Amino acid sequence: MDASVRGRRVRTVLVAGGAGFVGSHLCDALIAEGASVICVDSFVTGRRANVAPLDNHPRFRLIEHDVSESLAIDEELDEIFNLACAASPPRYQAAPVHTMMTSVVGTANLLTLAEEHGAHFLQASTSEVYGDPEQHPQREDYRGNVNCTGPRACYDEGKRAAEALCFDFLRLGRVDARVARIFNTYGPRMQPDDGRIISTFIYQALGGRPLTVYGDGEQTRSFCFVSDLVEGLLRLMRVEPNPGAPVNLGNPGEFTVNELARLVRDGTGSPSSVVYLPLPEDDPLRRRPDIGRARDVLGWEPVVPLTEGLDLTIDWFRVSARANGDKRRR
Ligand code: NAD
Ligand code: UDP
Predict the structure, then answer these.
(1) Is the pTM value of this prediction over 0.95?
(2) Residue closest by Cα to atom 33 of ligand 1
(3) Other beta carbons within 10 Å of 267
(4) Pocket around ligand 1: residues whose beta carbon is below 6 Å from it?
(5) ipTM of predicted assembly, 2 dp
(6) Could you tell me the domains of the chain?
(7) pLDDT tens readout for residues 16-55
(8) Upstream peptide bond of 137 is cis (omega within 30 degrees of 0)
């Protein structure tokens, strides 16, 4: 891989989980700004197609590897983003022990790699560290309400342990670690069958099937478009001094699941009905980020409203469904 552009040494950045939904957009943004990118992914939920546009790029390299196994990298690394971990509840619950090991052992491995390289480190944590929150909106100093023995614990507690590791490496002066607490994010490249609400609703609406609302649909989430999130991740990685504390990244607009169903039906023009199904165990009732810290420390806030982001995502789902249909017909 060419690690310099016109004689100037450029940043070399490792993105773990770089073939996933968010990770692939982050790889695109890093390549666009001139970095050399090493994408490490085991393809447990990610897809080669997500990074196919970068396939032959001279500053892009893809390594198939499971981060719960240690790894060595020859190039000198400047930054490591750790996004490796399935994010969709049905997906991370399908292999719960592996999910936990990915967050705990995987983060420890990547922090060790960062220490070896003197690289800055950013951990993709989650609003799930707040569990089913009793504080609303959620601020970073809220310690959360997580059921440590429930079906979501493999994800929530894994991410909490990963945060603890980051702050220990930071306190010990071993790694310049930063932690983003990401709230529900959506956009192109979500997999239609990954079980997350926006991808599921769009897929169902475009297919004219009923939208599956869990519970009474009055639970809320706050949805951030992926380009806004990527901008927040880049700013958090580079801001000086290190905030030394987690930073919420999300869109404070709060919507019920019923409202989202209506927006997706309007946006797709679909005649789909809605069916009500049982609420999954430990499903959080309300979620909305307080982004005061991100505004103060990063000068960041989301700029893409939900209706606009939904239109972009619906367009992408339409185009990719057509392309897949064409491939099947060939
Ligand atoms: P995703 O499932 O699309 O991407 C995760 C990527 O990590 C996939 O490419 C997957 O193959 C890879 N991966 C998983 N386990 C791995 C392992 N052991 N070794 C190597 N690669 C592995 O999910 P996403 O939505 O892109 O989320 C990216 C990150 O952001 C995750 O860490 C997730 O926890 C965090 N996050 C996302 C959201 C969201 O709404 N998208 C919200 C909160 C946090
Ligand atoms: N949800 C739903 N129908 C679906 C998928 C999800 O009603 O087909 C609900 C789910 O119960 C939750 C919300 O939508 O209350 C967000 O779910 P998602 O899995 O996208 O994210 P998370 O629960 O991790 O925030």
Answers:
(1) yes
(2) 87
(3) 18
(4) 16-17, 19-23, 41-46, 66-68, 83-87, 102, 106, 124, 126, 182, 184-185
(5) 0.99
(6) 12-184+225-250+282-303 (3.40.50.720)
(7) 999 999 999 999 999 999 999 999 999 999 999 999 999 9
(8) yes
